[in-house]
Amino acid sequence: MAEPAVTQDEKKEEEEQKVVDEGIEVGISRLTEARIEQVINQVLNTETGARLKTYVNTCIHCGLCSEACHYYMSHDKDPKWSPVGKVKQTLWEMIRKKGRVSPDFMRRAVEIAQTECNLCRRCLQFCPFGIDIAYLISMVRRICHKLGITPLYIQDTAHSHSVTMNQMWVKGDEWPDTLQWQEEEARGEFPTLRIPLEKEGADIMYSVIAPEPKFQAQLIYQAAAIMEVAGVDWTMPADMGWDNSDMAMFTGDNEIMGRVKRTHFELAARLRVKRIVMGECGHAFRSVYDTGNRWLGWSHPPIPIVHAIDFYWELLKDNRIPIKEKYPEPVTLHDPCNVIRGGGLMEKARYVAHALCETVVEMHPNREYNYCCCAGGGVINCGPPYKLKRVKSNRVKAEQLMDAKARGAKVIISPCHNCHSGLKDIKNYYDLHMDIKFFGDIIYQIMEKPE
Amino acid sequence: MHDLYQFVSGPLAWVAFILFVGGSLYRMIAMLVEVKKKEPFIFTYMSLKYSLRSIVHWMTPFATYNWRRKPVLTVVTFAFHICLFVSPIFLLAHVTLWDESWDISWWTLPDGVADVMTLIVIAGCVFFLLRRLTQPEVQFVTFPSDYFILAIVAAPFVTGFLAYHQWFGYPMVMVLHVLAGEVMLVAIPFTRLSHMIYSPFTRAYMGSEFGVIRKSKDF
Ligand code: HEM
Ligand code: HEM
Ligand code: SF4
Ligand code: SF4
User: Which positions 96-135 of A are in contact with B (Cβ < 8 Å)?
Assistant: First the structure.
């Protein structure tokens, strides 16, 4: 299973992989060469500067970044999937032709930029010059955004951000209703539990991504239970801005990214909280901690941002979560790019894993060298049309997991929503038969609860 | 031939050195000015500690994950780059020329050692050429200019080597050598060989980003 031979079926699947994305096709049908040229040159000449130029001029075309990329490794080292190979097929060509590229070229460019790179930044660690391929690819996304050829599904989430300030079209009243519903449910188990709405001056504002209220409300239940047991002074906002996720960041729609992040930070400022604690999500962390805040001109988040891993680490270190019994099944820990390579939480994640579980089996490579899940960077948000490509492009992750499984791991801990969903698809496609959990699931399961 | 040699090693050498030094300074300053103008935030992230952490790791063989993963290439590229800098600077023949024209001189390599270092540089060029021809991931991103750059770098070493051993047509080879050396110097600021000028900056920036914001390793 680790290295499936190319069979007739697989050939067929390759054919099926040729997807038609309405968002791209309609956008392409409206393009003219003149418009493409104008947009490319506008982005390259006015929105970018010495950074992009220096990266392009310094790259010595050595290919040393190739083996960083799970796409390249999963496609038998076919160079069209290598980091620099993807830049060659997109940005270099745009620069070389001074923007005079065809609509067909742009169709392929958007496919590469939005569905064949997770912006996971692993290749940044491999390039001897530290050339930021993820930045270069996100500039291609920016161009595609301005040309209106972003894939349909992710564009829909960006629209949702724009209209509702959340990713999933959650309507104004659905949000507090969901919180109230979870509070009521949880009070069956924890009689004094509250989900304090709009509590000004609380220590912590807890924020989540919109898929939680939409599909995974039990995660809010679990978070509330952990807050209750640990005796945390917390609050959740009732107003727009509660969603910390950000797909606009991944479509190159920086303006909407800025609006969404500003709303989020302003909400926390209005509630006068000391810190924002966020659920187990990686891309949201990148948006509030690294990308969105900077676009708004804050070099560091204006209100401290604490990722769930960091928060659980604090609680566990201070013995604030009483544990009945450690989680018995052997687990393996996935290191999500955005909080590990992007936030340095690798040792804290391990502290939490060891504090909670009897046995932790390491994947290899791990920590900041871990392979991406292939779902992040907005790739999974491009939707079902690209699912097959996505799972096939991460055979190396399946091999990593299989190896951990061979050494006893039964459960994968993935402290990131994107990784969670991506790994689920991978384990199903490659028949891995492992469970996937958040840290929150495990804490909730093993902590002491009132009788 | 003598006049030609005088010309290439006289006025033309001046031109080459001026273009090399001036061009390098220009590229560096132009870059910094543009950063200041369009992306000044970059300066606010720069950290001396993490810049040096990154540069030192990448300048040390096997000190980075990728250098460890590619042992052969690592040995070749370090040997190549070290010899590339050391052999011409400390070559007796070169230092003699500096001494004659400027009355300055410094320590020099024994000729035999310089000869071996020259061969190492040439071998390095051959290695890079073969890599480009045979490795699909390198081939895919190769342009004619990449071969051209390799040739520009190889030329002064090949001709220098031939001149030293005086195997054929010494005066002509000597003229070619000086020309080749000058072409290479001028090419540094104006081709991808400018990685010499830019690499400390790109490394420093990535090192700072990883150290200050991402709190993880970029090596
Ligand atoms: C103005 C430019 C230059 C002049 C006038 C010059 C002159 C010379 C002379 C007189 C020799 C000695 C030949 C002999 O012993 O008969 C020599 C050798 C050599 N030159 Fe240059 N050179 C120049 C530029 C360069 C450059 C830019 C490089 C390389 C980067 C270079 C690399 C070498 C090497 C490697 C040798 C010796 C090879 C060996 O010992 O095997 N030269 N050069
Ligand atoms: C501080 C100075 C320099 C640094 C840090 C540096 C670094 C590097 C690195 C990291 C590579 C890519 C890895 C590899 O393929 O081996 C490389 C390749 C190369 N460098 Fe340099 N370099 C420097 C100066 C120079 C100079 C002055 C020259 C020539 C004039 C030069 C010529 C080359 C060549 C020919 C390659 C191989 C390109 C290929 O694969 O075809 N480098 N350098
Ligand atoms: S997916 Fe990751 S490793 Fe591959 S090119 Fe994109 S940022 Fe680089
Ligand atoms: S490793 Fe860096 S220099 Fe080499 S091809 Fe990749 S991006 Fe270019």
Answer: 124-126, 128-132
> Which residues in A lie closer than 8 A to residue B66 (C-beta atoms)?
64, 68, 125-126, 128
CA dist., res. B146 & res. A95, Å (int) = 17
Atom of ligand 1 nearest to the CA of B17: 1
Q: Are residues A341 and B39, on separate chains, in Cβ contact within 8 Å?
A: no
A227 falls in which pLDDT band (50, 70, 90)?
Answer: very high
- Judge if the beta carbon of residue A123 lies within 6 A of ligand 3: yes
pLDDT, tens digit (0-9, with 9 covering 90-100), for B153-175:
999 999 999 999 998 788 999 99
| Cβ-based neighbours of A155, under 8 Å, separated by 6 or more | A23, A251
Interface test with A, best of B195, B205, B214 (most A CBs within 10 A): B214
Q: Could you give the percent of chain A with pLDDT greater than 90?
A: 94
Other CB atoms closer than 10 Å to residue B197's CB: what's the count? 20
Mean pLDDT of B126-153: 98
Instruction: Say yes or no: A71 contacts chain B, CB-CB below 8 A.
Output: no
Whether residue A103 contacts residue A31, with contact meaning beta carbons closer than 8 Å, is answered with yes
Other Cβ atoms less than 10 A from the Cβ of B61: the count is 15
**Separation between Cα atoms, residue B175 and residue A7, nearest integer Å:** 61
pTM of the entire predicted model: 0.94
Residues of B in contact with A88 (CB under 8 A): 140-141
Atom of ligand 3 nearest to the CA of A137: 6
Nearest CA to ligand 1 atom 24: B181
DSSP at A188: T
pLDDT tens digits, A243-261: 999 999 999 999 999 999 9
Whole-angstrom distance, CA of residue A369 vs CA of residue A163: 38
Enumerate domains of chain A plus CATH numbers.
Answer: 21-150 (1.10.1060), 165-316 (1.20.1050), 324-446 (3.40.50)
Domains of chain B (ranges; CATH) run: 2-213 (1.20.950)
Indicate if the pLDDT at residue A2 is higher than 50: no
Residues with CB under 6 A from ligand 4: A 59-65, 84, 127, 129, 131, 133
